[in-house]
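Worked Example 4.2. Consider the chain below.
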Amino acid sequence: MCMKPIYAVVAMAVMYGVLALMARSAPIFPDQQHLHDQERSLARLKRIRFEVELMPKELREVGLSAKGIRQRWSGRLEEAGLDLTGKDGDPVLKLIISSGTEPRVPGGVAFNPYLALIQKARIDSVDGELALPTYVDVRLGLESHDKLAAAANQVVNDMLAGFQKKYRRARGAELGDGR
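Applying the procedure from the previous section yields the following structure tokens:
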């Protein structure tokens, strides 16, 4: 009679030990998170030039301006840790927005923001460096003229937020803090 409670206690202790080992060993995380090449290209960025090309007529007509976007983005890029005092030869973060109308879509305006980080990359096949886009984000929108400003601003802000998030993740992986 005394032996049955001992077996139960031993079985519970073994089960507790197995569960503790399982909880301690899983999940297994790698030492460094895997970054796609596009994100890896952001890891060591410190200083860049930031350029916004002139807005097309359709976007200027609804109040968007290169200067306004540059002012809004500059503060957020600096908050993320980027120095925007880049000189010739430094990487360039460039925003270009094209737009147009289609007669078959009355009142509609298509817009196409293109964000690229252009930096020097070593290319073995040319035995040298080329200035290439190493990070690219391209979007496309179609909106009525009266909603164009809000839609274009939203898309451009989403692009900036995506760039900031990837830059911080890349910097975190580079610094080893796994952000």
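Strands lie at 49-52, 92-101, 108-123, 128-138, 141-144. The chain has five helices and five strands. Compare this with Example 4.1 before moving on.
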